[in-house]
Amino acid sequence: MKLKTVTLGCKVNQYETEFVREGLLGIGYEDAVDEQAADLCIVNTCTVTNEGDSKSRQVIRRLARENPASKIVVMGCYATRAPEEVAALPNVSEVVTDKRELPDLLGRFGVIDVPTGISGFARRQRAYVKVQDGCMLRCSFCIIPYVRPNLASRPAAHIVDEVRRLVDAGHREVVLTGIHLGHYGVDWNRNLPKEEWTRLSHLVRDLATLPGDFRIRMSSIEATEVTRELIDVMADHPEKVAPHLHISMQSGSDGVLRRMRRRWGAQRFVDRCGLLKERLDRPAITTDIIVGFPGETDAEFAETVDVCRQAGFSKIHIFPFSPRRGTPAAEMADQISKQTKHDRGVELARVETELRAEYYASLEGMPLRVLVESPLEQQESNQRAEGFIPSAPQHIGTSCRYAPVALPADLAPLGEFVNVIAGPAQGSHLTAELAAAPPALTR
User: With a threshold of 0.85, does the pTM exceed it?
Assistant: First the structure.
């Protein structure tokens, strides 16, 4: 029996697809390769934007055309939000509307011993580990709390065992992910005194004390969850915890943040970034920004640009506001024109380029540990656009500080750590020289 899996959307979706795939491989399914037809297709969908819905439908229709005899099982947030719509698509045999049903889904296919986690991550050097599900914040632009509202944290023992298996399988980086990562443990804490609460920092500390040559990276987190305790764990375990946080800001204007129903103001965000920089040596801070949120004035956009400069982001994911049906923001007055959103996105991208160059320059001469991930040829079009074409085969890797580093392929085997001294930036990557000894890791 041949199997195909397609994942759209976030790291949590990628983890959950791998969980289902591994269970099915364990009972005899095999991955369909190249143009092989599949007997079963699993599609994990995304509904963050209207475009996510559209892409999910396109993928399902394409799989039905290419695998006319297959059964298609659809899971993910679009399946939860619009199950009848999904069920009407060609070849769809089952719609999984609740991620808590995944063990039951595997059981229906004959998986008797449903695992508590995964043991590997196909075709990836980094492994994603889902530690938590659900979000209850109800930001005005976001549909996710409507389709994944229930907070559910995984037991720490299951996560620790899973990370051990992934490290034993050769993964050198484990990325902790969740729908609201910083709310790990919150569902357990509600009826407990504060001194007995479980927090994300406790989990990270447990993982950082595991033996093995690997590192931990955290995915997106809210500014209010960048606690002193979490920063202390990062500072105490520089050899295991990457000095990088993706702190989702969305806007640097207090007025826009209020309309977004965010939980903090711009100054608090800047203060948390400052706290991180006080305790860690040149940490990478990345973020998400929505441009053109309803009612955003030129002055409010300028406030966002100013806060980006104050925070010193090394990377900014820029999203023009896209009204999401079913959210309060989609019904707000003063929707911003497409041209204005485009112009603001271009301006912020220019600022991001400046900030990235400043951050990369600050790393020059610094020892870095790089996980070698892929041949540079896989990103050749990006490299040509940046004006950088290597003269010899190159591999690309990600440093502990989330800066991509290009290295000679013969000196940097895929899937392994390489210790380097950072050189000047070239295009969108750092150059580097191999270090004679492992770097002295700094906080």
Answer: yes
